Amino acid sequence: MVTIANIGWSSYDDNEGPFYYGSNYYKIPEKEISFNDKCYAVIASSEGTLSSINMYDRAIISVGAIQWTELTNNKVSEMIGLVATRLGVDFVLNHIQPALTLSGGTFKQNTNGDFRFFIDEKEVKGESLARKLFAGGSNKKGSWTKTNITLAKTWAMCVANLFYEPEATEVQIEFTAPQLRGFV
In Å, how far from its chain's centre is CA 2? Predict the structure, then answer.
């Protein structure tokens, strides 16, 4: 289990924030190996583990072996939404509720039926709401308060713990595999 003590701190350009490397690397299946399996292994070898989290750059939060981002295309909520669809919303909430509680956020389906994060009853779209949800404000160097650091590290811890669950990592692989051609 990942704890806040396991969450590191780093920076990139003018931003800083938490990160977690993780240790559950993508493994190529032992049976029939597809082109996607090979692509996944190559890309993941340079991006991260299935539970890796990066919250120290402009993307605000990047998750998993391919480092899906929330800011640019809601891929984090989309991937966690697939976990909720496959394994149940309670499975997801059991992992991320501490971060949701600290931020005042929720994770639920929007009017289109897509799982998304919400804060102040607004769907998290764009930089301002994403920063408010995941960091409590700006992630610029020198702008962090103790409260904001705790919030961001709690998000990193919660999402990392979700993707240490074998069932959730299987869903992450299922979510990612069909989209690999865009990376290749």
Answer: 14
Report the length, in residues, of the chain. Answer: 184
* Alpha helices (H) along 16-164: 35-47, 75-87, 89-103, 127-135, 146-162
Mean pLDDT calculated for residue range 59-83: 95
Q: DSSP class of residue 165?
A: S
Structure confidence by residue, pLDDT tens digits, 161-173: 999 999 999 999 9
* Dihedral in degrees, nearest 10, Cα atoms 176, 26, 91, 84: 0
Report in angstroms the alpha-carbon separations of 102 from 43, 67, 152, 154. Answer: 33, 24, 10, 8
Question: What is the rounded distance in angstroms from the CA atom of residue 180 to the CA atom of residue 40?
Answer: 7
Query: Position of tokens 């190559």?
Result: 42
The CA distance from 71 to 87, in Å, is 25
Report the relative pairing of strands 15-20 and 105-109 from DSSP bridges.
unpaired
Query: Whole-angstrom Cα distance, residue 66 to residue 20?
Result: 14
User: If residue 174 lies in a helix (H) or strand (E), which one and from where to where?
Assistant: helix 166-176
